[in-house]
């Protein structure tokens, strides 16, 4: 049973901190930027990979070439930590708890408030996949399957539905009924 509650964050409105500038830091940074290219991000680590330095040239990404310190949590909303030092990762989790900041410790699911997901994107449609931490590789493979089967005409469909939605008159119940009627074809009815 997967009890995780999925939400879609507006990361350009929040300030994200990534701690660690190695492979994991880069992977998580890329995951964030792929979805939210305008996200406001600060990344801290004494050693930062060149690929991350390049991303800082073209994104709202500030790099700090220091060791983690709790002072860097000031004005931060959400934290992703992936240093190669378990004790540091644990300290970050404790500091975030004390400050009520949501935190992801990449290599320790038990210390995470949230997990990253595999993300399928086709135009405005976005599907997030979670395996409850059981198999990120399954999530990745299933993303590939869904990417393959989603129709290329989605853009048109969603635009049409949006314009119908904006034009519909009547009370809420009537609108819901009408929109359900129009989209019945999706269930093969
Ligand atoms: C719990 C979670 C916490 C979190 O990171 O948020 C977590 C934890 C861990 N990942 C590990 C390993 C790998 N992670 C990936 C890939 C992804 N991992 C992602 C999410 C999550 N990973 C969260 C649960 C998501 C869920 O519920 O399914 C994805 C979906 C999203 C993203 O990271 O952007 C992204 C795929 C994106 C895509 O392509 O669609 C691959 C495959 C690869 O890289 O090809 C491997 C190697 C193969 C393998 O192990 O499966 C390890 C062991 C490390 C070690 O052995 O040292 C841990 C720690 C542990 O499990 O203890
Ligand atoms: N490489 C991978 O794909 C995966 C690795 N892991 C685990 O995650 C951890 C990190 O892995 P990598 O990113 O590959 O390591 P890495 O060696 O490439 O990077 C470690 C990063 O942590 C930073 N760091 C170290 N101490 C710090 C501190 N006090 N404050 C701030 N930053 C600090 C370093 O400067 C460096 O940028 C390792 O423990 C690894 O076992 C987990 C999942 C996958």
Automatic annotation (TrEMBL):
Transmembrane segments: none
Keyword set includes Cell inner membrane: no
Family annotation (Gene3D superfamilies): NAD(P)-binding Rossmann-like Domain, Siroheme synthase, domain 2
UniProt EC number: 1.3.1.76
Catalysed conversion reaction: precorrin-2 + NAD(+) = sirohydrochlorin + NADH + 2 H(+)
Pathway terms, separated by semicolons: Porphyrin-containing compound metabolism; siroheme biosynthesis; sirohydrochlorin from precorrin-2: step 1/1
Database matches in SUPFAM superfamilies: NAD(P)-binding Rossmann-fold domains, Siroheme synthase middle domains-like
One of the GO BP terms on file: siroheme biosynthetic process
Sequence ranges assigned to domain Siroheme synthase central in this UniProt record: 123-147
Keyword Disulfide bond among UniProt keywords: no
NCBIfam families: cysG_Nterm (TIGR01470)
Protein name: precorrin-2 dehydrogenase
């Amino acid at each position: 049973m997967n009890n995780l509650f999925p939400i879609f964050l507006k990361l350009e409105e929040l300030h994200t901190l990534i701690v660690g500038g190695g492979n994991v830091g880069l992977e998580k940074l890329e995951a964030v930027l792929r979805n939210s290219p305008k996200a406001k991000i600060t990344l801290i680590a004494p050693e930062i990979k060149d690929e991350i330095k390049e991303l800082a040239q073209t994104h709202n990404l500030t790099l700090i070439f220091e060791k983690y310190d709790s002072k860097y949590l000031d004005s931060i909303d959400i934290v992703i930590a992936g240093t190669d030092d378990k004790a540091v990762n644990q300290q970050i989790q404790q500091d975030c708890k004390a400050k009520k900041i949501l935190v992801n410790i990449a290599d320790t699911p038990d210390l995470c408030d949230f997990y990253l997901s595999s993300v399928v994107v086709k135009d405005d449609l976005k599907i997030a996949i979670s395996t409850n931490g059981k198999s990120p590789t399954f999530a990745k493979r299933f993303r590939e399957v869904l990417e393959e089967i989603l129709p290329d005409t989605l853009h048109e469909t969603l635009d049409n539905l949006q314009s119908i939605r904006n034009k519909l008159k009547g009370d809420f119940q009537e609108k819901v009924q009408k929109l359900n009627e129009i989209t019945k074809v999706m269930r093969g009815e």
